[in-house]
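Board notes (copied after class):
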Amino acid sequence: AREEKFISVIGPNGCGKTTLIKLMAGILTGACGRVSVFGEVMNRVFNPAKILAYVPQSLSFSFSLSVLDFVLLGVQGEKSLLGKISRLSVEKAREALSLLGMEDYAERDMHRLSGGERQKIILCKALAQNAPLILLDEPAAHLDLAGQLETLELLSALAVTGNKKIIAVMHDVNFASRYSDYVLVMKDGSLFASGKTPDTLTPEILERCFSVRVEKCKDFFIPVKSL
């Protein structure tokens, strides 16, 4: 999947999707083998933030922090001689917020955000890193329908025109079908199927993976009955 820009990872709950993404991000270490990203072995990378940005399903905060300060944590910028955040870094953080229409939230406290608002800000921080690879664990989680579409449209645009590679765990197979050009299907901790989206997201493969009879109506997959 070297040439594909938007890769979705789907599969039943507990099949290892999140574990796979965390292995790629260098958060977890496998018992054997190795994980390489752009030729770099993850457990040897000094600063993985230059290679990839990771967006978890959720993130809790035990201390007060403004939205702008949180997004600034992702900016790969230089500090001034006095140790202060540079104006350029602040501009980059605000630009990342504006991509998801969150610029008015800059002074808000992360504690006071809804789950959906917080999820958007976490994605803004990842975008501020300006890394070539973005790993996301269910990017549409906690978002309402408009937020889901806005987020996935942005990720799709970044993949197509922004020279980014997107790898996302997707809960909704219809979103995976619509936005990704390559799919990894997991089952029981292993890779069950993989390939270009039209060839891989088929009723037959979905039925065998999820143990649910699936019908396709135009471009939509509809679960009909448990097998």
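Comment from the instructor: The chain has a mean pLDDT of 89. The helical segments are 17-25, 67-72, 87-99, 115-129, 145-161, 173-179, 197-200, 203-210.
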